[in-house]
Amino acid sequence: MATYSVDPGAPDEPYLAFWRERHLCTLTTLRPDGSPHVVPVGVTYDPEAGLARVITNGTSAKVSHVRAAGPEGARVAVCQVDGRRWATLEGRARVHTDPERVGEAVRRYAERYLRTPRENPARVVIEIEVERALGNG
């Protein structure tokens, strides 16, 4: 299987279908020393909005790493793997606390992962403005 680039705003149907399947993903952020911090997360992909979304606790290390990058956002990547198939979304991440944005992220998470996450008053959403999409399969 060859690696291919995908138009992140208009992915082909097989690529988009893979992002609709229920898979655990990883989020890679950079620590202040430049070393990668890779953690398992749930991710939703919204090509119409050009966003990937991760819901998380506002006190997490990943949130700290994104916030430390400043208003331009942090360079991050999310990836999912299923056997030989994989897909990666890269872009700029920013943390949002707005209840409407967080609610939309929770709704999309529940749709993809077939379960509503537990209540968390400290929940935030990391929104990634997708600049590059790669994958195979």
What do these coordinates show?
The protein is an alpha+beta fold and 137 residues long. The protein has one domain (4-136): Electron Transport, Fmn-binding Protein, Chain A (Pnp Oxidase, Chain A), CATH 2.30.110.10. The chain has 3 helices and 8 strands. It has helices at 13-20, 61-68, 99-113, and strands spanning 4-6, 25-30, 36-41, 44-46, 51-57, 74-82, 85-96, 123-136. Strand 2 (25-30) and strand 3 form a beta hairpin. The radius of gyration is 14 Å and the shape is globular. It starts with a strand and ends with a strand. The mean pLDDT is 96.
Describe the structure using short key phrases.
23% helix, Pnp Oxidase, Chain A, single chain, alpha+beta
Q: Topology of this protein?
A:
Elements: E1 4-6, H1 13-20, E2 25-30, E3 36-41, E4 44-46, E5 51-57, H2 61-68, E6 74-82, E7 85-96, H3 99-113, E8 123-136
Antiparallel strand pairs: 1-8, 2-3, 2-6, 4-5, 5-8, 6-7, 7-8
**In the CATH hierarchy, what is the architecture at level 2?**
Roll
Q: Please identify the top-level CATH class.
A: Mainly Beta
Total number of distinct structural domains? 1
Within CATH, the superfamily carries the name Electron Transport, Fmn-binding Protein, Chain A
Number of helices in the DSSP assignment: 3
Mean pLDDT across all amino acids: 96
Radius of gyration from CA coordinates:
14 Å
Query: In CATH terms, what is the fold-level topology?
Result: Pnp Oxidase, Chain A
Order of helices and strands: EHEEEEHEEHE
Shape: globular
Number of strands: 8
Helix content: 10-25%
Largest sheet: 8 strands, antiparallel
